[in-house]
Design a protein that fits this description.
About 35% of the residues lie in helices and about 20% in strands. It contains 22 helices and 22 strands.
């Protein structure tokens, strides 16, 4: 930063320019002004975002003069700086952790008392990653979970241990725990209870043999296909299963496996609205997830959440980390672009970012790049974010092949609040949990004890169904989505400064601003399907009081979790991901790099951290 003291009148003038230019000019100019303002006031990026959102000034020709003054002052500021040594690091750490999601936070938490200088660097202004807890204004006592939201009792033991250590409170995940209103399934314009869908009359013309085994049809079909009882499927022997033509089951997709044994109608019975209806998903993913020896017969009371909000797993871990030593730090709005150097002396190249209304974009002035040194590096990044880091081992043929072994599943959630629970009081098919065509999963989220308003998770969706909703909500073209690796690559590259999504499609009344807004085309699309599924006229569904949506598509996430492609084993992926180079102290952690039963779960992220810490930071301990 320059040591020049700017007059208060100049600062005020720049503030006016930014506030009004945001309304009157495109996003590129807005971000130029943001960078100038950042230089002048020396604000943190979080403070800057808040400053810009809250300023309200009348429009005036004076704005143009303010803009010119800001540019002039910024030029003086830049010219007053001396060129720094390009290889000098601003900070030096024993360990640099990239990403403030659950894997990065837990890495810091586990190392907090090891006497190390540790720094966390986060791309946005928010801690949590894909664990994202929010509150809406009319339900102040309720948390809406836009990302991770559940754990399984006695299965997710690492998460449960962390909850206890942080002094948090487990609570039963009540949504759907209501025998008065059985869970409902909606297929082919027919609503039925989940039990009827499993054992009763359904709108699918199954063969007599399939109908006879309908109650456990998936297992029955795969027992025939593999000539195996599937009563003791483990993470190892699942890859020994074969199909009648001699091929290994893990080399073919789930839809292809079904086509070898099931009737066309039975195939649709399993694939309609399923995220497994994709030719790039390994059949082994399904068999291991449903029939693996790790699968326990747990009841609804074993599905838990966290009373204080799921994001407290992350917030609490980072709080304990920062408390443990003054040598620990966290810095927000820092995007890792490249890693250089060798073991013990890595140079991490960062680009500063700015976040406004949950939309993060890169800064591109001469001061936006910075370097940090570290002896060891932990990359707590989703697979898509990891694929964008410029480091030679990540670009190797071997590691790129490992990254191709999975693909990121786009996921989304849409929450709306209402004055009454119309899906119970006015519905022909009342239900608190619904699995419906075009909607995915629908959950009655409960009633606010403060305002009496009700919350409905109106859609929890995946893959092509998420893509369809994203296109409707943004008004952008589906060609911008790269479904094979996750992320909207073209969108990121062609529109790096886009921070005004409302200029394309305005949000509906009561919606949050910015990236998580809900627009009219998405609401109309969802309402049409709700009308059919609940048996209520479209006009009978009231407008929401408030709303919020989250699409897990863009950088650095690329999706909510990953699915395995045919031809890859869990062992080669898990062991290969952990350390990209045998001669480097750079390690990869996160739920994208674990076995199928744990991908997308916080437990999977913690599991990878435990393995890395035990093997490379505390090598005298036994590695499981």
């Amino acid at each position: 930063m320059s040591d020049i003291n700017y007059p208060e009148s100049a600062l005020t003038c720049v503030e006016v320019g930014i506030a009004n230019m945001r309304q009157e000019f495109n996003s590129l100019i807005v971000f130029v002004l943001i960078e100038i303002f950042w230089e002048l006031k020396n604000l943190t990026l979080v403070e800057l975002s808040r400053e810009i959102r809250t300023m309200e000034w009348p429009s005036s020709p004076r704005n143009i003069l303010c803009l010119l003054l800001a540019v002039a002052v910024f030029s003086v500021s830049c010219c007053s700086r001396q060129e720094s040594n390009k290889n000098v690091c601003r900070l030096e750490h024993d360990v640099a952790i990239i990403g403030a999601g659950i894997s990065g936070a837990y890495s810091a938490y586990k190392l907090r008392n090891e006497g190390l200088d540790i720094g966390i660097y986060e791309y946005s202004d928010r801690i949590g990653g894909r664990i994202y807890t929010e509150r809406l204004p009319d339900i102040p006592d309720q948390y809406v979970e836009l990302g991770g939201m559940r754990l399984i009792n006695q299965v997710h033991v690492l998460v449960q241990d962390l909850i206890k250590e942080l002094g948090l409170t487990e609570t039963i995940f009540l949504y759907g725990n209501d025998s008065t209103y059985p869970d409902t399934v909606f297929r082919r314009n027919v609503s039925m209870t989940a039990e009827e869908f499993r054992t009763g009359d359904i709108p699918y013309d199954l063969t007599p043999e399939e109908k006879e085994n309908q109650a456990d049809l998936l297992k029955y079909l795969f027992q025939k296909l593999t000539n195996d009882s599937l009563d003791n499927v483990t993470i190892d022997n699942v890859f020994d299963l074969t199909v009648p033509d001699g091929r290994k089951l893990y080399t073919i997709s789930f839809p292809e496996a079904l086509s070898l044994i099931a009737s066309p109608e039975a195939q649709r019975y399993f694939l309609d609205e399923s995220h497994y209806g994709n030719d790039e998903i390994s059949a082994t993913d399904v068999v291991y997830e449903y029939f693996g020896a790790h699968v326990l017969d747990y009841g609804k009371d074993d599905v838990r959440s966290i009373e204080e909000g799921y994001n407290q797993l992350v917030n609490g871990s980072i709080h304990r980390f920062l408390e443990a030593s003054t040598r620990h730090s966290i810095e927000m709005n820092m995007k890792l672009e490249a890693i250089r150097g060798t073991s013990g002396k890595y140079i991490l190249q960062f680009r500063r970012t700015v976040t406004v209304d949950d939309e993060t974009a890169e800064l591109h002035n001469r001061e936006s790049m910075t370097k940090v040194c570290a002896k060891k590096v932990i990359l707590g990044l989703p697979k898509y974010g990891l694929s964008k880091v410029d480091w030679r081992p990540l670009r190797s043929r071997r590691y790129k092949d490992l990254l191709e072994g999975t693909f990121s599943a786009h996921t989304s959630k849409v929450f709306l609040t209402y004055e009454t629970p119309w899906w119970i009081e006015q519905s022909r098919y009342p239900a608190r949990v619904l699995d419906a065509a075009g909607l995915g999963e629908v959950y009655d989220w409960g009633q606010s004890s403060e305002t009496g308003h009700w919350t409905l998770l109106i859609s929890y969706n995946k893959l092509k169904y998420t893509d369809n909703q994203w296109v409707r909500n943004t008004g952008l073209n589906s060609s911008l989505l790269d479904g094979s690796i996750g992320g909207s690559v073209d969108f990121e590259e062609e529109n790096p400064m886009l921070t005004e999504p409302d200029t394309i499609l305005p949000r509906i009344p009561g919606s949050v601003y910015g990236e998580n807004r809900v627009t009219a085309p998405l609401k109309d699309y969802l309402y049409k399907r709700l009308s059919l599924a609940f048996g209520i006229p479209r006009c009978g569904i009231p407008d929401p009081v408030s709303s919020i949506a989250r699409f897990w598509i863009k950088y650095p996430y690329g999706g909510g979790w990953v699915l395995t492609r045919p031809g890859y084993t869990y062992e080669e992926l898990i062991n290969g991901y952990r350390r990209p180079s045998d001669t480097d102290d750079v390690f990869v952690v996160g739920s994208d790099y674990t076995a199928r039963d744990m991908t997308g779960w916080a437990e999977g992220a913690l599991w990878t951290v435990e393995r890395v810490i035990d093997q490379f930071f505390k090598p005298n301990q036994t590695v499981v």
